[in-house]
Each structure stands twice: as C-alpha cells, then as structure tokens.
C-alpha cells in the first residue's frame, strides 16, 4: 500500500509539472518596443507569429488564460523570461486537458504606453505598498501599482503565488486585481480602476465629489462607508467568504487611504492580500510610510498568529472609525500633548455623550445626528480598540452592529427624531 501511494503521488506531481511546462511553452516572448495602434507586431522568431490585432487589441484587455490550473497548483516551474506577453493564450496540457491562470500578464512596454511612462500626470496616490498610476485606454481604465523594494527583491515564483491569492479575492467591496507584470525584474500589479477618491481625502483633505457635493460628509454617509469597508474585512477574515480550502486573509495595513469611495458612495478596499509586500524595517517589524504607524498598533503587541493578526485588522478598523467620528488623524503633533494620540485621548470619552458631542468632527456640528446611532457607533469603536486582541469582536459581528447603527440613523430620520434633539446631545 505504501509503495502504491508513493507511486500515485509521484504520478500526480509529474502531471502538474507537465501542466506547468505546457504553460511556459504557450506564453510567447516579446522583445519589441511598445506598438502603435494598427502597427504590425514582431515577436521573437523562435516563438512563432501572431497577428498584430492579437497584441494591439490586448495591450490592457486580454488575459493569458491556460484553462484548468487549480488554486493549489505550485508555480515554481514558471519560466520568468517567458511570462512577458499580454497575448491571449489558449493551450492544453501534455494530456490534452485545458489549464487556467486566473490573472493576466502585462508587458512593461504596454504599461508604459498606457501610463505615459509612469508620468507625474498619471500619478494617482502613494499607499503603504507603493505608488499608483492611472493607465488609460479608450474603452477602460486601470490602476497600476508599482510595488516597493520588498516585492522587487522577492523571487518570481513566490511573487506569483501571492498574486494568485490576491486574484482569487472576489467581493463587491474589494478592489479587483486584473493581472501583474514580472518582466525585466519588475513587480507591478494591475487593478480595475474604481475611483481616484479615498476615505483619507474625504476625512482629512476636504475632498468633494458627486457622493458628497456639499463637502459635509454627513453622518449617515460615514456609517455607510464604515459598513461597506467592514464587509470587505469580514470576507477576508472568513477566508474568501468561507469557501472550502481558503484560509483567512489578513489585510495588515487597513487605513483610510486604502478605502476607495466613488461618485455614487460605493466603497472598495484596496491593498487586500498585499501584506507580504510590505516594507520591513531594519528590526524586521513592518513599518508604515506614514509617521503615525504606531497609532494603528495596540500597546501590547500580539503574537504573529492568524487570530491575533485578524485582531490587528479589527484594531485598525476601530482607529479608522475614530477618524470618521472625530475628523482627526491618529497622530497629530500640532495638538496639545495630551491630544496627539487619537486612541488614548478619544477612548476615555466614547461612553460620555457630552464628550462625544464635543469631540465630533466639526463638519457634523449643526447637522442632525441620531443619539442612538452615535452611541452605538462609539460603542463599536470602544470594542475594536481594546488592548488585548481576544476582547475585540470579529468583523462579522461588527458588520451586524453597523447595520443596526445604519438602520437607527434611517429610522430616526423617518420618525422625525432628529429635530428637535435634546440640547445636551446636539452637535453644536
């Protein structure tokens, strides 16, 4: 029996190796400058010929598809010199079975062409993981993330394993990955463009767009943004919606700048699954490119277990909710010494309605804010920023609580509870 099992396992491994060799053979090597629309394409002669329309039309549109490759298949046998084409590839394995890769491969040339060589005009923003540029096509837009040094130093097979994990994340509130670029040692990720506005813009920069034309960012809108972001983290922590074989994904760096908000007030969280690409400090701990990193870490640092790591996401979520409530950054050295760190300063006031009134974002003052909804929101924050991870709620619980806060805000408006509000509770 033992010999039979060993033989069977070797046969399965040999089959997967054959599948991957087939992928490598099917992906063309392109050694040309970015083509002009309508110009002929000139592939490397040893890899055959492809019509110009197959390349020009797929510069940012077609996927390298090799149907049948499962989510568990190792990528160690990929030839990095081969995965450089945006060309749509259809092929089978050595046994004639179709194989699938769930993301696209882009060339450096095609991305340079659509981002104006990553010009300042196409620069969108900088995040924890790198700089993001707008890639424009007549029929669509993409957001290209140039990852930091940690990713560029990562082995290609390890990088692709991480990319595959990110590509499998599919949720209405998570930024959708389209593909990547590994040509010439580059490490770039290509996402569907969703919005140029972030929650950081709306809270701290006074950004105004169709979803907030008056630049007031009213209470109900703030709860709605928090709820949609919570749904994204719930999906990650639940291992991709609880799908069989999926493990919990920890965001690791949940911040307002990673929450995208479009003109219809829809929300998508960016940076999901990118924790392995975070820039490490000299001591080995991950550090943020902002100066307020420690404001997103609870005083007692938890062990690096998945459970504790999801607890860190919950803590970060609480810090973001505090920013929604107060309009303050997690660390502000301009304020008096006792108010510089947001969590300890605000944490002691979360169960005092009078204190809540005073520390609320000035833009909320003079606007109707239901007392029950405000109180529930503050209670959620208090539980999220508990120092010990074991006392923090799961994201699934927070989603339910925020749904309750949203409903209370709507019902208060419907029942006329917003006006008048007892003077001692009004935000003035």
TrEMBL record:
One Pfam family from the record: PK_Tyr_Ser-Thr
GO molecular function, one term: protein kinase activity
Domain Protein kinase intervals: 118-411
Any one biological process term the GO annotation gives: pattern recognition receptor signaling pathway
Signal sequence segment: none
InterPro entries recorded: Kinase-like_dom_sf, Prot_kinase_dom, Ser-Thr/Tyr_kinase_cat_dom
Keyword Cell membrane: no
Presence of the UniProt keyword Acetylation in the record: no
Cellular component annotations (GO), alphabetically ordered: plasma membrane
Keywords: ATP-binding, Nucleotide-binding
Name recorded for this polypeptide: Protein kinase domain-containing protein
């Amino acid at each position: 029996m033992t010999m039979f099992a060993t033989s069977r396992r070797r046969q399965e491994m040999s089959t997967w190796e054959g599948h991957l060799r087939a992928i490598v053979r099917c992906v063309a090597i392109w050694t040309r400058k970015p083509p002009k629309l309508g110009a002929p394409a000139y592939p490397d002669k040893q890899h055959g010929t492809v019509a110009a329309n197959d390349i020009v039309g797929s510069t940012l549109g077609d996927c390298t598809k090799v149907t049948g490759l499962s989510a568990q298949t190792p990528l160690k046998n990929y030839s990095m010199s081969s995965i450089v084409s945006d060309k749509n590839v259809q092929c089978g394995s050595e046994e004639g079975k179709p194989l699938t890769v769930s993301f696209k491969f882009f060339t450096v040339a095609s991305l340079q062409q659509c981002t104006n060589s990553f010009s300042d005009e196409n620069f969108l923003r900088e995040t924890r993981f790198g700089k993001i540029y707008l890639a424009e096509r007549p029929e669509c837009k993409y957001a290209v993330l140039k990852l930091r040094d940690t990713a560029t130093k990562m082995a290609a097979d390890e990088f692709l394993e991480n990319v595959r994990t990110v590509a499998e994340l599919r949720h209405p509130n998570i930024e959708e990955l389209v593909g990547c670029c590994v040509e010439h040692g580059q490490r770039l990720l290509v996402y569907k463009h969703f919005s140029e506005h972030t929650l950081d813009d709306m809270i701290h920069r006074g950004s105004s767009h169709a979803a907030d034309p008056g630049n007031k960012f009213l209470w109900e809108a703030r709860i709605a943004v928090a709820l949609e972001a919570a749904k994204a983290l719930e999906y990650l922590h639940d291992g991709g919606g609880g799908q069989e074989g999926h493990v919990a994904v920890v965001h690791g760096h949940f911040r307002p700048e990673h929450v995208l908000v479009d003109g219809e007030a829809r929300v998508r969280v960016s940076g999901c699954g990118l924790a392995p690409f975070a820039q490490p400090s000299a001591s080995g701990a991950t550090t943020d490119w902002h100066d307020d990193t420690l404001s997103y870490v609870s005083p007692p640092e938890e062990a690096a277990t998945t459970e504790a790591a999801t607890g860190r996401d919950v803590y970060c979520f609480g810090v973001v909710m505090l920013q929604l409530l107060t309009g303050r950054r997690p660390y502000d050295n301009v304020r008096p010494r006792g108010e510089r760190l947001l969590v300890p300063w605000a944490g002691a006031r979360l169960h005092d309605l009078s204190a809540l009134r005073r520390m609320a974002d000035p833009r909320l003052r003079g606007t109707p804010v239901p007392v029950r909804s405000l109180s529930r929101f503050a209670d959620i924050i208090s539980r999220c920023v508990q120092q010990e991870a074991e006392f923090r709620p799961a994201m699934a619980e927070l989603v339910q609580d925020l749904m309750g806060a949203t409903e209370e805000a709507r019902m208060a408006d419907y029942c006329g509870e917003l006006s008048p509000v007892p003077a001692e509770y009004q935000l003035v």
